[in-house]
Structure formats: C-alpha cells, structure tokens
Amino acid sequence: MILVQILKQEWPKHWPTFISDIVGASRTSESLCQNNMVILKLLSEEVFDFSSGQITQVKAKHLKDSMCNEFSQIFQLCQFVMENSQNAPLVHATLETLLRFLNWIPLGYIFETKLISTLIYKFLNVPMFRNVSLKCLTEIAGVSVSQYEEQFVTLFTLTMMQLKQMLPLNTNIRLAYSNGKDDEQNFIQNLSLFLCTFLKEHGQLIEKRLNLRETLMEALHYMLLVSEVEETEIFKICLEYWNHLAAELYRESPFSTSASPLLSGSQHFDVPPRRQLYLPVLSKVRLLMVSRMAKPEEVLVVENDQGEVVREFMKDTDSINLYKNMRETLVYLTHLDYVDTERIMTEKLHNQVNGTEWSWKNLNTLCWAIGSISGAMHEEDEKRFLVTVIKDLLGLCEQKRGKDNKAIIASNIMYIVGQYPRFLRAHWKFLKTVVNKLFEFMHETHDGVQDMACDTFIKIAQKCRRHFVQVQVGEVMPFIDEILNNINTIICDLQPQQVHTFYEAVGYMIGAQTDQTVQEHLIEKYMLLPNQVWDSIIQQATKNVDILKDPETVKQLGSILKTNVRACKAVGHPFVIQLGRIYLDMLNVYKCLSENISAAIQANGEMVTKQPLIRSMRTVKRETLKLISGWVSRSNDPQMVAENFVPPLLDAVLIDYQRNVPAAREPEVLSTMAIIVNKLGGHITAEIPQIFDAVFECTLNMINKDFEEYPEHRTNFFLLLQAVNSHCFPAFLAIPPAQFKLVLDSIIWAFKHTMRNVADTGLQILFTLLQNVAQEEAAAQSFYQTYFCEILQHIFSVVTDTSHTAGLTMHASILAYMFNLVEEGKISTPLNPGNPLNNQMFIQEYVANLLKSAFPHLQDAQVKLFVTGLFSLNQDIPAFKEHLRDFLVQIKEFAGEDTSDLFLEERETALRQAQEEKHKLQMSVPGILNPHEIPEEMCD
Predict the structure, then answer these.
(1) Is the pLDDT of residue 803 over 90?
(2) Which regions form coiled coils (predicted)?
(3) I want to staple 203 with a disulfide (CB 3.0 to 4.6 A). Which of 170, 199, 333, 744 is the partner?
(4) Full domain range(s) for residue 189
(5) The dihedral of CA 675, 679, 681, 684: what is its sign?
(6) Closest Cα partner for 376 from 925, 935, 937?
C-alpha cells in the first residue's frame, strides 16, 4: 500500500518505466507475479476508484491516461497467466486484479479478445474460480455501449448454458441457499447481481430476438427462484430489477385498462407487446411481493424473536426503505394488471379466514401489501375491494381468541384504514365505523395497540377533517359533537402522551369548522376537561401558593399545557379564545415556578436542576413558552398580538431569564422571542432594546467561552439575532455602539462555529447585515471604517479553514459583495486613515499581506493572481467560487492534505436535486406516494 502511495507521486514522471519493470519482473517467478498482481490491483483502485479529492483533477487524469496507454503490457501478462498457469492461487489473484480493471480499460480488450469466452468456458464452472469469474462477467454486463451487441448476446447465451449445467432449472434455490456453505451462498448472491445487471442493461436486446425468448424466460425463472431466498440482501438485488422492469413497462403506456390482461386470453388487443411477453412472470412477482412485503413505518405492533407480540420502540430504517421499494414495485405491478393483484390478495385473505394459511406473519405481509397499493386502483374497484377486506378482517377479529391474535389483527385493520383516506372520505358510514373501532382499540391495553389507534386516528382526522364537522346524511348532529360528548369515556384508558395525540387529532376537526361562533363553542367544549383541572389548581394556588411545590400538581400542570400545545398546533389562530382564558394565570404560574427553581438553586447549588420536581417545573415553563410561540406563529393579527399578548409576556419572562443562573435559563425564551420578531416584524421594533437588554449579553457570556456548552441556547440565540436583523434592523442602529460591537462580535463568533447550523446562520446574518447597512446612508460609512477590514480578515480565516468548506458558497457571496462595494466606490470613507490612498489599492495590499503571512509557502505571483481575480470575478458568483476553490487546492496540496471536502456542497446539492427529481416522478404515478405524503390541497 505504501508503494502505491509513492507511485501516485513518482509515476509516470520520475519512474516512467514502472509498468514494464513490474510486468518484466512478473515473468521471472510465479510468487513474485502473484505479489505484483496485488500491487496492480491496488494501484487501479487508488487511481480509478478513490482518486477524487485525493489528488488534483489534472493529476488524476494524467495517471488514468498513463495507465490506459500502457495497459496492453498488463493485459498480455494477465492473458499469459490465465492461459498457461497451473498455479491456482496465482490464477485467482489474476482474476481478482482483472475484476478491478474491467470498469476502466479500453473496451477493445474486453470485446475484441478471447476474454469473455475464456472466463465462461475455462473458469466459470470451476468451483474455486466461479465467484470471481461471475463477478467479472457482471462487471462486463454493466457496460452500456451499442457497438458490441453480438458480444453481449454471446455473453448471455454462453453464461446461461453453463448455468443450467451447474444449477439445473428445477433446483430449489431457496433450500440450496439455506443449506449451502459460504462459497455457495456467495455464488447465489453473485448470480442475482449478474442477472439483475444484465437484464437491466441489455434485457431489451435479448427480447427483440425471437430465437432467444426461451433463454430469456429461463433467466427470469432463475430471478424468481433467487428472489425466494430468505436473505434480505439478495432480495434487495432482485427487487431492484423487478422495480426497474415494472416501472419501465408502466411508463411505456401509463394508463391501465379495466380488464385483466392475464385473464383475457393470450392475445389481448390492448396490451403492448412487451407487457404481453412478461405477463406470466409479473403475476409470479406480484405473488412474491404480497407474500414478502416488508413492515411499514406506521405499524407499531410486531412479533419479536421470542414469538411474543410487542410494541416496537426502535424504528428499523433498513426495513422502512425496503418497504418503500417493495411498495413502489407493487404499485407499478398493480397498474399493469390490478385485477390480478386483487385476485392474489383476495385469495390470500380467504385463506386467512378459512385457516389454511393462518399465521401472524402471513396476515401481516398480506395486510401490509393491501395498505401499500392505496391510490393505484380506480376508485370504484378500490371501494369494492376494501369493503371485502375490512369486513373479512373485522370478522377475523371476532372469530380469533387470545389477546395476541386480537392485537395483530387490530394493528392490521388500523394500518389498512389509515392508508385509504380517499375511500373513507367518500363513504361516511365506513369512516364512522372505523373511527368507533379506533375508539374501541384505545381501551385495548395490549402493547402498542393504543399508540397505533391514536396515530391512525390523527392521520384520518387530518385527511377527513371536514367530514367530522358537517351533519352527514342520516345523522342528527356532526360527529365532532358525539366525540366531544363522550371524550371522557374515549380517553379514560390512554397514557398522557396518547391523550395529547388525541387532542391534536380532534383539533384538526375543529380547525375545519368555518363558522366562528360554532367553532368557539366547540373549542370551549373541547377544552372543558383540561380547563376543569387547571381551574381547580389555580384556585388552590390562590389560597396557598405552596401547592405549586407539590410534585403531582406540577406534573398535572405540565400535562395540561402539553394538551394545550397540541390542540393549538391543530386549531391555529382561533385557539386565541382558549389561550386568552388561561394566559395571565399561566404567566403567573411561570413566575412562581421560576422563583421556586431559583430558590432551590440558591439553597442547594446547580445540581438541584437534575431533580425530578425541578425538572417538572422547568417542563411547565417550557410548555408555556411553546404554547405562546406556537400560537403566535399561527396567528393572523400581528397588531392584536403586539398590543395584548406581548407586554405581559415580556414582563413575566425577560427579567426572570436575566436573573436566573445560566443552568436555569430556558433556551425556549430565545426561540419564542425569535418567533415573535419573525411574525410581528415592525410591530415589535420598539421592544427590541428591552429584549436585548435582558437576554443578549447574559446569553453571549454563556456561549462565548467555547463551541460546545449550551447548544440549544447557542442555536436559538443566533436565530433571534437573525430575526431582528431581518425584520427590525432599525433597532440595531438605535442600540449603543458598545452593544452593537457585541452584536458584530457574536456574528463573527457564529460563523466561526463548529456546529454547522450555527455557522450557516452566522453567515446569513452577516450577509443580510451588510446589505441592510448599505441602505442606511448615514450609518454606512462609519460602519465600513470601523468594521470592514476586520470582517474581511475573519471571513478569510474561515474560507481557508478546512472544517468550514461546507460554507463555500456563502463565503463566496459575502466576499464578492464586499469586493464589489470597494470596486464600485460605494465606500467613500478611507479604509486606511493613516494613508488615505485609493481604497481598492489598499484592500488589494491588505488581502495580499494577510494571505502571505498566513501561507508563507505561496509565491507572490500566485497571491497576486488570486487577489486580482477577487476583483475581476465579483459579478459572477459561480466563477468567484471556483476561483476560491482553486486557491484552496493550492494551499492544501502543499500541506499534503485531503482536498475531497472542497466539493462537499456540490455533492449535497446533487443529492438534493436527485431527491427532488425522484419526488416529481413519484407524484406523477398514482399510488406511489403514501397518501399521507400528498399535500392537503391535492387530496380533495
């Protein structure tokens, strides 16, 4: 490995004969040859697989070109070994090395030599070499070029002939895999990779040749057999191909017909020819997807390794991703022939009911599959199908005895109904039955069932909210009234956090009521229970304030406020009627608990904040702030908020924050202030000095000692600064100079931060600040004179710091803006009072000296060229950014550092764009997105 690192620096310039030296030496002894094969393999990996970011792009290209130009000698050596050597380890090492070469060598070496036939005839059927040979063939199969069609056909037919001898078509591959040794299991995995790669790249080439139809069907038969293997990694490989095939066939003609192609005789007039070809295979793939469907995220009731039915606590991201891919595949397959999908599912459901296939696993996979195709059928078909499914499942729930059985069936009913909001919106009777069933499950104490009932209820409430506040046909009142009349009995068995979810769900319904008077009555009735407990605590506290030191009481207050927070989140601005009712009492409780906490800390030191009672008190304070900020962010009357809600809040919260010891200051105070400033803008400018006085300096002193302590205060402090900077900038100009200097210092502190979110916020604040200052004629020039050079120096210090590469785009934007100010003469005051020469020349010298003192190894010419570019490119941000990046590569190369992170942002952007493209594509196919991922306005 060390030799390879040296080669990357020395070859080809200082050791031009390296390739011929190593090839020559290899012919002298077999053991040396085997060793040299490993060196060539490592060199190939370093240059072609891992070079990006390790060496400059120019150098990487030079190494790749050198390797390609001298490859004939290496290839002759490999060929010589493969044809003549009897030394098995050497042959194996040569095949391994060849495998690394295949993704970059000139294609002639693959397709215009005997390489393919040698691999297939000489090595594929030898147990010791079959795995590496199949990997080589897979690598070749992945090449997509049109001029070698015949060679690809040969590769496919010869490999299939060998395969049928090694692994006859009637082999039970699932069984063979589970009984096989490691080497045999690897072969099955490599086989899945080969078939998947070849069929994805060249399947259409084989389809077109009638004489190869049978071979194609045999390959698909192998794919089906391998897909049944009980090994998730192999299944994922097969799934990738089935997904690709189904999506491709769907996109060729996206509109599904209403008749089933499979059942309408062999030559169905509507079916495109490619679809016709794959019909029998696709039916088997449907059965496979239904039988093996992975668990969706929403399902919380699972069977553990001991066979017990329990609640799942850890989300299994691997399983969720597998579910998403299987779901997508099954949706495409359903579009291709939904009658066949329905037939498979209905038969499997009957077998659950009649007991022939009854098991938890079978019922689960079937129901997860049924839930996964929501939106992929025509509405009428969906209705007919679902009515059958839900009736059968409700019947099964009655028929089966035992808590575990009931829990599994309940979780499946809840999952399915949660996936079909379109059906529920169109069928009120069913919606009502389903919701009543959920209320029943809310009393079922089996692990996970209540959680799932509440989660499903909130999903349905969000998607069908309007239906609950209208009087439906055959009803005497809206269903919301029935819920509110019985709320006590519905939630009596739920845990506090489940009650909070329930309240949020009902809140969505109330939020859908458009008549204000009716809505206010609903809110009063809705909050009746929590308000009764609240009123009784407040009455007791009025008589004896020590009740607010009682652990049970404080816990109750926390829970009531959490209920209010969730209710407010769902109801929005109209929640003002409830908030107004408890507002002043709530702020008094806040003050009182705050005094209790401070007294406890004074008496017992800061460690007391870890005690349960003190933590409960802090929860009440936090939830109070959450409730206020949550409502303000949803409010729609800024003046009313500024006049009625803000003054008592500032009075209760600010002085308390300032007086507390750091450990007892709530970070939510800062985020609440930020939300208020963002929402109220100019309406609150006059209060900013008061807010700053209370929170600014004391918070800054908590976070300017290091980059780690108080992370929440840190993030929220800068969010507040950003809000004031964006919405109340005149307030910055009104504060005393010493305080403004602190503001600027804290912004510089922010963008030097190691927490990326803080650094990004700091850069955004600085950029907005510079733009805001430029608008203020009077203040601008003295600002530039005092701070311009200092800001420039600090920005360059982060630009050249490797841990800040992610901010390169923002660095470029800020620097370009600053250099542009200088160049266009926007700064009229001299930046160098001692020598008031032209500002542009001064800044050129200033930056050049700054860089030379930081990086003495740079040539004067390099620095001069860089500084000139800063002025000439400041109108073109992308070019300016590339200019910065080239300079950074020069600095890092000298220091021998890794330069890969300089492209971090591009990689992130590319990933984000790929995600967006994928999402657009998914939006265009009905059923691909989970119904709960679809924006509200598209649902109705």
Answers:
(1) no
(2) none
(3) 199
(4) 106-230
(5) negative
(6) 925
